[in-house]
Amino acid sequence: MSRRSLLVASAALAASQAQAQPQGERPPAEVDIVIIGAGAAGLAAARKATAAGRSVVVLEAKDRVGGRCIADTVNFGLPMDLGAHWIHAPAENPVVPLARAAGFALYDDPDRPRLMIKGRGPRESERENFASALRRSQRAILDAGEAGREVALSEVVPHDLGDWRQTVEFLKGAWDAGKEMAQISCVDFYNAVETRDMFCRQSYGAILAKLAEGVPVRLSTAATRIDWSGRGVSVETPAGTLKARTCIVTVSTAVLAANAIHFAPALPKRQQDAINALSCGAYEHLIVHLPGNPMEASPDEPFVIKADGPAVAKPLARIGGSDWWYLDIGGRFARDLAAAGPAAMKAFASEFVGNELGPHARRVLGEIHVTSWTTDPFVRGAWSVAGPGATPQRLRLAEPIGQRILLAGEATDEGLWGTVGGAWASGERAVDQALRWLNPPPAAPRRRHR
Ligand SMILES: Cc1cc2nc3c(=O)[nH]c(=O)nc-3n(C[C@H](O)[C@H](O)[C@H](O)COP(=O)(O)OP(=O)(O)OC[C@H]3O[C@@H](n4cnc5c(N)ncnc54)[C@H](O)[C@@H]3O)c2cc1C
Predict the structure, then answer these.
(1) For 215-274, how does the pLDDT look when each residue is reduced to its tens digit (9 = 90+)?
(2) Which neighbouring-strand residues pair with 243?
(3) Nearest atom within ligand 1 for CA of residue 427
(4) Domain 112-195+283-370, what architecture?
(5) Residue 64: CB within 6 Å of ligand 1?
(6) Which residue in 41, 168, 300, 303 has its CB near the most CB atoms, within 10 A?
C-alpha cells in the first residue's frame, strides 16, 4: 500500500537471520523482558532492551522473523516483499537510518501513476475529472481531520464525484487503508504522516531480516497464555512456560481480538475496547509475471484503474525493474477473496490483467503468486485502522498495564500507524517504559525525625 500518495504465496521466505534458539534448547527460566512477536515492533524492542543490558527472549509463533514485513528470496529471481513494500515517511521512519547504516540501497518511489480505463489510456477530460475528484476528496478528508472531526471519510467526500466515486472509494478506502471509507476516521487519516515514499533495492523484508541478526528469538513458539496474576508474568507456550519480570506484546490487534492469547486475569476493559476499536482491514498482493514489458511501463510505475465496483486492484508495475507486478487488493473485497482461497485470487488476477491491462498483457501473463495475510492465524488482517471516534484509542492501547505488561505494534503509533516505521517506534517506546519499571529511580532520601 502507499496510503501516503496524494495523487493518487505460496512462497519460500527470506531466511531468518535471527539468532534462533535451537528447538531443543530451552530459553532461560526467567528473563527481564519477554517479547511476544518478532515483527518490527518486537525486533526493535529486543534490540533496545539488549543494548540496555537487559535479558530478553522474543517468542515468535512462526518459523521466521519479520512479521508482516518479509521477503521471498526464492520464487521471483529478486527478493519480493510479501507484506510491507513502501518505506513510508523516510524522514520520521526509524528503520531508514538503520537500513542505510547496514548498507541497503534505498531509492525514491517514482509515484507518477498511469490512469487506465478498461485497457486504454484516458482522454484529457477523463484525466482532469479524475484528478479533480481525487484532489477534492483528499482536501475534504484532510480538512475534516485537521478540524478534529471524528467522522468517516465517506461522510465528507464530495457527492458529485460521478463515475469516479468508485475509484476514489477504492483508493482512499480499500487500497489506502484496507477498509471501506465508511469505516475510517478522518482524524486517523489526517494524523498519518504523509511524505514521499521510498523503496529498498533488496526489499523491505531483507532490512528487517538483517536487523534481526543476533536478536534472541525463539521461533515456532506461540504464546498461548500470559498469566500476570502474581509478580511478573508467566508466558505459556507449547514448549513450556517462561517467566519474566515484564512482557511486551506486539501481535496485531486482530490476533488480540481473536483471543488467540489468553490473558489471566483478562486485559483491562480500557485496552479491550481499544483492541476492538482498532480492528485490522484486509490487503493482499497478487503478484503476476508479465515478461517482455507489454505495457511499456517504467520500473516501479504505479497504475490507477478506473473502478466500476469494489472488485478492482491497483497495479505496481515492474517491481525493482523486474517483470513482476503487484496487483493489490484491499477492503471487504480482499477479505472475501482471500477467504475463497488462492485459486479464486489467481482467477481474479488473471481476469483483471485481461480486462484492465489489455490483450498484450493477457498474452504474456505467466505465473501468479498470492499472499494470504487475512487468513494467516498469526496476523488475521493487514493493519489497524480507527473508525470514527476511535482515534484516541491508539494511545489507550499503549497505556502500561499493571506495571508489567505493555501492548506495542503498529496500532499504537499515532502518526505512523499501519507502517513498519510506526511498529518499530512503538517497540522502542515500550522498552523505555519497561526499563523504567526495571530500573526505578532511587527513592528520595527520607528525613530523619529527631
Ligand atoms: C500486505 C501488506 C502490505 C503492507 N504494506 C505496507 C507498506 O508498504 N509499508 C509499510 O510501512 N507497512 C505496510 N504494511 C503494514 C506493516 O507491514 C505493519 O504495520 C508492520 O509490519 C507491523 O509490525 P508489528 O511488529 O506491529 O506486527 P507484526 O509484523 O504482525 O509482528 C507480530 C508478530 O507476532 C507474531 N505472533 C502472532 N501471534 C503470536 C503468538 N501467539 N505468539 C508469538 N508470536 C505471535 C506474528 O507471527 C508476527 O511475527 C503492510 C501490511 C500488509 C499485510
Answers:
(1) 999 999 999 999 999 999 999 999 999 999 999 999 999 999 999 999 999 999 999 999
(2) 30, 234
(3) 25
(4) Alpha-Beta Complex (3.90)
(5) no
(6) 41
In this prediction, residue 446 carries a pLDDT of 65
Give residue 15's pLDDT. Answer: 37
Q: Which atom of ligand 1 is nearest to the CA of 284?
A: 1
Boundaries of CATH 3.90.660 in the chain? 112-195+283-370
Q: Is 87 helix (H, G, I), strand (E, B) or coil?
A: strand
DSSP letter assigned to residue 417? T
User: Which ranges of the chain have pLDDT less than 70?
Assistant: 1-28, 445-450
Say if ligand 1 is within 6 A of residue 419 CB: yes
Rounded to the nearest angstrom, the distance between the alpha carbon of 383 and the centre of ligand 1 is 7
Is the entire prediction scored with pTM above 0.85?
A: yes
Q: Is 333 in the pocket of ligand 1 (CB under 6 A)?
A: no
pLDDT at residue 193, as a whole number: 81
Instruction: Report residue 164: phi and psi, to 5°.
Output: -95, -5
**C-alpha–C-alpha distance, residues 157 and 159, integer Å:** 6
**Residue among 148, 154, 187, 194 nearest 277 (CA):** 187
Structure letter (DSSP) for residue 100: H
CATH topology of domain 30-69+86-106+201-279+385-438: FAD/NAD(P)-binding domain (3.50.50)
Question: Please, where are the H alpha helices in 301-419?
Answer: 331-340, 342-352, 359-364, 393-397
Q: State in Å: Cα 11 to ligand 1 middle.
A: 17
Per-residue model confidence (pLDDT) at position 441: 73
Say how far apart CA 391 and CA 260 lie, in whole Å: 24
Ligand 1 atom nearest the C-alpha of 59 is 43
Q: How far is CA 385 from CA 126, 299, 331, in A?
A: 31, 30, 11
Separation of 223 CA from ligand 1 center, angstroms? Answer: 16
Q: Residue 360: CB partners within 8 Å, gap ≥ 6?
A: 294, 295
| pLDDT tens string 315-348 | 999 999 999 999 999 999 999 999 999 999 999 9
Measured from the Cβ of residue 198, the count of other Cβ atoms closer than 10 Å reads 18
Residues of the chain with CATH 3.50.50.60: 30-69+86-106+201-279+385-438
